[in-house]
Write a structure and sequence with these properties.
By secondary structure, this protein is of the alpha+beta class. It has 17 helices and 18 strands. The protein has 2 domains: 377 residues, no CATH class; 57 residues, Dna Ligase, domain 1, CATH 3.30.1490. The protein is 33% helix and 21% strand. Strands 1, 2, 3, 15, 16, 17 and 18 form a 7-stranded mixed beta sheet that branches. It has a 4-stranded parallel beta sheet with strand order 5-4-9-10, covered by helices on one side. It has a 4-stranded antiparallel beta sheet with strand order 11-14-12-13. It is globular and about 55 Å long. The relative contact order is 0.20.
Length: 436
């Protein structure tokens, strides 16, 4: 089995010099590799993670099943019922970078959560180009459904598709990558890489803080002029903070394309939605086919909303549960049940949490005496998997701060020709050439 390589293969696949060249291919990126080394030295793991084709296909099947349910009006109404009012606004855009995170448990892949501003896609696209095969057998393996050489174009075309889905022709002229205090963010190097990617396709781009934005006369702008599209990296998913007022007003007025956006978060990433996706009777009442229900129940750990009336039972069962805040991100305020104290339990009951069946992650040995936990992220757009990447870590949750850990490429056995997605080409070739 290919998974056996995770405990037997210790060959370093990451070519550090190739990674540096890939990161700094653009002359404007000089010094970026050093910035990563100084700020996040454990961002990239040296070893790949091996995943069987069967598990890759099972993850894709679970994603298709989730997407099919999310498209149902009944599901959308149920998910929006506990979402903030802003989520009822439909901007047309689908939402960039939906991240489906799986643990490869003993019973196969289990979807532990969905995120809407899943970071790391561009970093992983570059990482995929900086790998070397340690032997002929590994050379025969492949990465995700899009070839490494095509990943960056695929990511750009996703933003172009978001632009068109929101009712706008051609390409945006100016894009802003927006986050609070962006230069202080852990993923700031990726923000810079995205700005360079957009510029390579002829689109002006800047990394901005929300305080640099203004909404005036129906136009979202910064000091340099109007902004057409915002790649939104804020974790204020409902844009409620006063500092985010300009972005919120522009979103509600459809004055710019904002992606990902509050509606996408409400439909995909609110952890309470997993309780809808793991309730067979409810799914049947919505007309979901039994075959789809079986995929969901098998592929998603049982999840329920924490309510006061269930407190005694959940406390008694806590050792087999994991507790997550409904609108959480980055594993913040998430707790493994066996480590709960009464004080934290009180905070969970007072907050908005879900209890999820505990699915231990698989492991990747990085040496004879050392192992890392693994989760596998599928980066998805419009239901299509763009990229597979693993995160290696130690501790309770992923952290990108473990020596030897970080992002790792996923390698699997080749599928049939139909298994490999064609690179989406929503842009006319002439438009691409003109933009580039």
């Amino acid at each position: 089995m290919i998974e056996a390589l995770n405990s037997e293969c210790f060959c370093i696949s990451l070519d550090r010099q190739a990674l540096r060249r890939a990161l700094e291919a653009d002359p404007a990126a000089r010094g970026l590799h050093q910035l990563i080394e100084e700020r996040c030295p454990h961002l990239f793991a040296a070893l790949p993670v091996f995943v069987s084709r069967r598990h890759v296909d099972q993850m894709a099947a679970a994603i298709r099943a989730v997407e099919a349910v999310i498209a149902l009006p009944a599901y959308r109404e149920a998910a929006l019922a506990w979402a903030p009012e802003i989520a009822r606004h439909d901007p047309g855009a689908a939402g960039a970078f939906i991240g489906y995170d799986f643990h490869l448990g003993a019973d196969g892949p289990r979807l532990i959560e969905i995120n809407t501003n899943a970071g790391g896609a561009l970093l992983n696209a570059i990482l995929a180009r900086a790998q070397r095969a340690c032997c002929e057998e590994v050379e025969m393996l492949e990465g995700g459904p899009v070839a490494a050489k095509d990943l960056e174009r695929t990511l750009f075309e996703m933003f172009a598709s978001e632009w068109r889905r929101s009712g706008r022709p051609g390409l945006p002229r100016r894009i802003a990558i927006v986050d609070d205090s962006p230069e202080q963010q852990f993923m700031y190097p990726e923000f810079l890489l995205f700005a360079q990617l957009f510029r390579r396709y002829g689109v002006q781009a800047a990394v901005l803080a929300p305080e640099q934005l203004a909404f005036e006369g129906g136009v979202l702008r910064d000091a340099q002029g109007p902004l057409d599209l915002v790649y939104n990296r804020l974790t204020d998913f409902a844009l409620e903070a006063p500092a985010h007022a300009a972005l919120r007003d522009a979103y509600l007025a459809d004055a710019a394309t904002i992606t990902p956006h509050p509606r996408a978060h409400a439909l995909y990433a609110d952890k309470r939605n997993l309780s809808l996706l793991t309730e067979p009777a409810l799914l049947r009442s919505w007309g979901v086919p039994q075959s789809t229900i079986e995929i969901l129940v098998r592929g998603i750990p049982r999840t329920e909303v924490v309510i006061a009336s269930a407190a005694e039972r959940l406390w008694a069962e806590r050792r087999r549960l994991f507790f997550k805040p409904a609108a959480g991100h980055g594993s913040r305020a998430a707790y493994r049940g066996e480590k709960l104290t009464r004080r934290v339990w009180g905070e969970i009951l007072a907050g908005s949490y879900v209890a999820q069946e505990l699915v231990p992650p698989s492991e990747r040995r990085i040496g004879p005496e050392a192992s890392m936990k693994v989760d596998v992220r599928n980066y998805v757009y419009e239901g299509r998997v763009q990229l597979l990447a693993a995160r290696l870590y130690q501790g309770q949750t992923t952290n990108m701060r473990t020596a030897g850990g970080g992002f790792a490429p996923v390698l699997t056995t080749p599928g049939s020709g139909a298994d490999r997605e064609a690179v989406p080409s929503p842009l006319a070739e002439g438009t691409i050439r003109a933009a580039a």
